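## retry 2 of 3
previous attempt timed out at serialization; input unchanged, resubmitting
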Amino acid sequence: MNDHLPIDRVHNGSRPYYGRRHSARYLAHKVKESLTTRVSKFICTLILFVLFVVGLIAFILWLSLRPHRPRFHLEEFSFPALAQSNAAPESASIHFNITIRNPNQKVEIHYDSIESTIYYREQAIGTVPLATEAFDQDSKNTTVFYKEISGPSLKVSGQRWIDMQADRTGGSVPFRLEITSVIK
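## retry succeeded, writing output
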């Protein structure tokens, strides 16, 4: 028995046949075709890379230049007459402190008007303008408003006052402050 692998060889000393033999013209055409394919792929890659970089730059510019809304914060709110059990509703006044922050780096905000309304159980009990005239707020700036609502602009009397006193003895009085503004 023969322990060798069979080899298909012609015993006349020639090399084994592995495939078709191609002419020099055919091989030159094949190389030329692959060179054109490579060049076109390179050009497409270059164009896509340029589009990607331009899109990335446009996205970063859009993120950095778009204006952000101003931020309103209620810093303090007090209703001193409500803390006194024998206070008359006519002498009541509400004090509050609001800060408005312009978070933009290079954008100035113009306010035409700012008005605040205080609600008790979804009923308006007082309205006061925060700014009496239009003003501009510079970038990265905070504006503070200290306001008081009292007298005829504060509509607290009769049953509302009794309800507020009852809520105070219960532990919490539900107020809501709404700020309305026109900005550019």
